[in-house]
């Protein structure tokens, strides 16, 4: 199922508007105004391109998160970021907290391998028979709800995280499981990543695979985008990015020419 034309247009316009704003705001800062050796090797235009790309890559994470929400809004009853006054609020039992902290410790120490189904069952069981609870609040990068009531919580990260980032992401997601289990609900949780930097090889970053199991609680690249928008979403998205790139290139070249004359 490809993205609908209107949805493709919305994503195209969203991305193009932000890139044009980046181009308009881009300039050489004082530290980069004269780099004679770099300019001699790579040309001033080449150096400018590097700086512009770096600035865009920093912003791309936020843009991707917004685009993920745009796509999901079309296919889910609810698609929103839970933040600020809208953060996820709930309770967890003391027993559930001990359970997921032990899971984290064992994963970190390689005593056990990630197994989402087993972890979720342990946390659900530990949430049912205890009246000792503590309040918890969580920010959720993307909360989805299907028409049948199924709830899905996604933590979205870049493709090359360090171990501490992955441990924290795993903890947050397990805590969400515990919060919902206390309400008697079994929900889905996922770590989502926009692309696989090792493609066509399988994703191989140990800092992530120590805590997450691809296909169970970890979606990356095509699997991530197609989960949100259906089959073909990833390919549609790449084509949109290619089209936007072609459209903004003349504007970018014009800006570089202006800056190289400065």
UniProtKB/TrEMBL annotation:
GO terms for molecular function: DNA binding; type II site-specific deoxyribonuclease activity. InterPro entries: Restrct_endonuc_II_HinfI (IPR019045). Coiled coil: none annotated. One of its GO terms (biological process) is DNA restriction-modification system. Keywords: Endonuclease, Hydrolase, Nuclease, Restriction system. It is an enzyme of class 3 (hydrolase). Its EC number is 3.1.21.4. Pfam families: RE_TdeIII. It catalyses: Endonucleolytic cleavage of DNA to give specific double-stranded fragments with terminal 5'-phosphates. This is type II site-specific deoxyribonuclease. It comes from Candidatus Falkowbacteria bacterium RIFOXYA2_FULL_47_9.
């Amino acid at each position: 199922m490809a993205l609908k034309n209107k949805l493709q247009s919305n994503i195209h316009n969203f991305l193009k508007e932000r890139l044009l704003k980046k181009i308009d705001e881009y300039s050489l800062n004082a530290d980069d105004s004269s780099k004679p050796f770099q300019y001699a090797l790579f040309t001033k235009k080449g150096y400018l391109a590097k700086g512009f790309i770096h600035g865009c890559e920093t912003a791309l994470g936020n843009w991707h998160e917004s685009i993920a929400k745009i796509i999901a809004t079309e296919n889910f009853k609810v698609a929103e970021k839970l933040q600020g006054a809208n953060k996820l609020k709930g309770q967890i039992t003391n027993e559930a907290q001990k359970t997921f902290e032990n899971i984290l410790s064992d994963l970190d120490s390689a005593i056990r391998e990630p197994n989402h189904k087993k972890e979720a069952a342990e946390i659900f069981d530990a949430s049912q028979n205890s009246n000792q609870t503590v309040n918890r609040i969580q920010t959720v990068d993307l909360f989805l709800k299907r028409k049948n009531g199924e709830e899905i919580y996604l933590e979205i990260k870049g493709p090359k995280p360090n171990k501490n980032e992955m441990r924290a992401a795993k903890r947050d997601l397990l805590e969400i499981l515990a919060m919902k289990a206390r309400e008697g609900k079994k929900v889905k949780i996922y770590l989502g990543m926009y692309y696989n930097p090792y493609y066509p090889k399988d994703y191989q970053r140990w800092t992530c695979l120590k805590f997450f199991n691809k296909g169970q609680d970890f979606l990356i690249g095509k699997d991530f985008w197609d989960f949100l928008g259906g089959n073909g979403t990833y390919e549609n998205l790449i084509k949109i990015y290619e089209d936007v790139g072609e459209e903004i290139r003349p504007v970018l070249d014009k800006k570089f020419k202006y800056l190289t004359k400065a």
